[in-house]
Prior knowledge:
Elements: H1 3-20, H2 27-39, E1 43-46, H3 53-63, E2 68-72, H4 79-83, H5 88-92, E3 109-113, H6 120-132, E4 134-137, E5 140-143, E6 148-153, H7 163-167, E7 171-174, H8 183-194, H9 207-216, H10 226-238, H11 245-261, H12 283-296, H13 300-323, H14 330-351, H15 355-378
Parallel strand pairs: 1-6, 1-7, 2-3, 3-6
Antiparallel strand pairs: 4-5
Helix pairs in contact: 1-2, 1-3, 2-3, 2-11, 13-14, 13-15, 14-15
Amino acid sequence: MDQSFNKLLNQAHKFVNELAKPFVGREEEAKVIALSIVSGEHLVMIGEPGTAKSALARRAAELINARFFKYLLTKFTEPDELFGPLDITALKQGKYVRITKNKLPEAEIAFIDEIFNANSAILNMFLTIMNERILYDGYNEIKVPLWSMIAASNNVPDEPELQALYDRFLYRHFVKPVSEDKWAELLEAAWKIEAGYYEYAEPILNMDDVKMLNKLIFEVDLSPIKEKLLKLYAILEDQGIHITDRRKGKALKAIAASALLNKRMRATEEDLFVLKHIAPRDSEEMEQVYAVLLDEIKATEKHLRELAEIQANAREAKNYVAKVTDFDPRLVDYLRSFEAVKERIKRLAEETSDDIVRQRALDVLAEINEVIDMVKRKFMI
C-alpha cells in the first residue's frame, strides 16, 4: 500500500471516532452512519426522540464537507417543502421547473426525520431518488447528487404502502437511550454542547475521498467470509428471519465497508457483525440476529460485550459494598464470584491477540480487584 492509500484508510477510521466524539454512548450509531456513507447506501435509525440522531447526521456531513439537508416530515408536508417551489416565471413560459436551492435535490447527505410520515406524492419521489438518484418531477428527470439518506422514525412501519420505502434502507439501526452507567458522562457532554463547546466539526474527508473509498469496497477480499456468510443466512432463515435476495447481495458492500473502516483490504469474521444492521426487520429480530452472530462468530465484539457486562456488574457491586455497614452474607457471594471472574479475565488478557480487547480486559480487571479489596476490608482481612 502506498502512503496516500494508507492515509485514506487512516482518515476513514478516524472519521468514526471523530463522529462519536461529542456524544456519549453513541459509538455504534457512529459506526453504522460511517458504513452507510462509505458504501453509498441509506440508513434508517429507529428509536425514541432525543437520542442524537439528527446531530450525528449533521456532524457526519460536516466531517466530510458534504452539502446537507434536514427536514421533519408530517402528514401535511408538501413536496415543495422538500424539493423546492415551482418557478412561477418559468411556468408562465410553459416550463415546469423547481427552484431547488438549499433543498433536497442539491444535498449530498440528507436527514429526514419521521420518514414514514411521507404522503403518497413524497413517497414516490423518495423511492426514485433513493434507488436511482433521479428526481422524477412532472415532465423532468433531475439527476441528484444524493449520496446517503439518513432517516429517523419512532417506529417500524406496518403499512403495506411503506414497505418498499423501508426496504430501500440497507441499514436499519435500533437506537436505545444511554445506559444508566453513562448518565454522569451524558450530563457533562450535554452541558458542553449547550454551552457551545462542540460546534462545527473540522472536515476529515471530502466527497472525493468518500467516492474513492466507495470504489475500494470492490477491491476488498471477501473470500475468507463467504462460506460463513452463507451459513449465517441459512441459520437466520431457519429462525424465521427472512433476508431478501437484494439485501443478501448488498450485505457484501457493508462487509467490505466494515473492513475498510478497520483499515483492512481483507474481510474477517468480525465484519459479519454488520448483519445486525441489515437482516432484522424490527428490534425483536435484531436481538435474535445479534444472538446468532455472538454464537457463531469468535470476534472482538463478543469479548467486548462480555467485558462490558462484567464491568457493569463490578460497578454495581462497588456501589453496594460501599453502603454496607454490617456483615452481609451477600459479601461472601461477591468475593467468590469476582475471584472466579478475575481468573477468567486474566486468561483473556494473556491469550487475546487483539490490543483493544487486551486493554479493556486489563481495565475491567482493575475494577474487579477494587471490588475484591473493598469486600475484604469489610471482612477486616
